[in-house]
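Hi C.,

You asked whether I'd gotten around to modeling the 215-residue construct. I have! Everything is below, sequence then structure, no commentary in between.
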Amino acid sequence: MYDVKNTLPVTGLILAGGRSSRMNGHDKGLLKLLNKPMIYHVIERLKAQVGAILISANRHLETYQQFGYPVLVDDYDDYRGPLAGMSRGLSHTSSEYLLTVPCDGPLLPLDLAEKFLQHAQRTQAKAIIAFDGKYKQPTYNLIHKDLLSPLTQSLEQGEHKLGKWLIDNGAVRLDFSKQKEAFLNVNTLDDLQLLSQQLSHIKKHSIPEDDPQTV
């Protein structure tokens, strides 16, 4: 069922279940960046870091399934944000940790899982959140499987705010200020166009060079 890449006790979850309100309703994960869906680039940077990959999506399910990884739909009919996707992810993995990343973060660090896991083991924290030197980046996080029960309870109580939930559950931040560009999120169509222009000149820094399928 899972595409195992390494022995880290971490499953990667790609959040692609949002409503994309600032993208005129377009599904961000499927918008093209360098002639590939944006989620393709996320997968390429994530797949060597984790033992398995899951995709959280609520529409275009057949399209997301074509990437070859399990696609999980939220348990709730009303939109409850990334926490709902994370709850599904935790309940569908046997890994000790769940690493969450957004589908609109095509430059995510290639050592994200390793650094998160080391920090979790060093601090004994159940949750880690990325910090880019200026802002917290809550959609880039690592949570322990022990948090499934409190996460489910919070969702049932109406908690939808990812950052607040992470902090309330003891998340500690990990400084990525030396890699702050890696946390660029494509939130608008203008963002996507600008990034496409930039990457057309520095493609080797954003897409793995050993992939013959990359355009």
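If it helps when you're writing up: The longest strand covers residues 136-144.

Thanks,
B.
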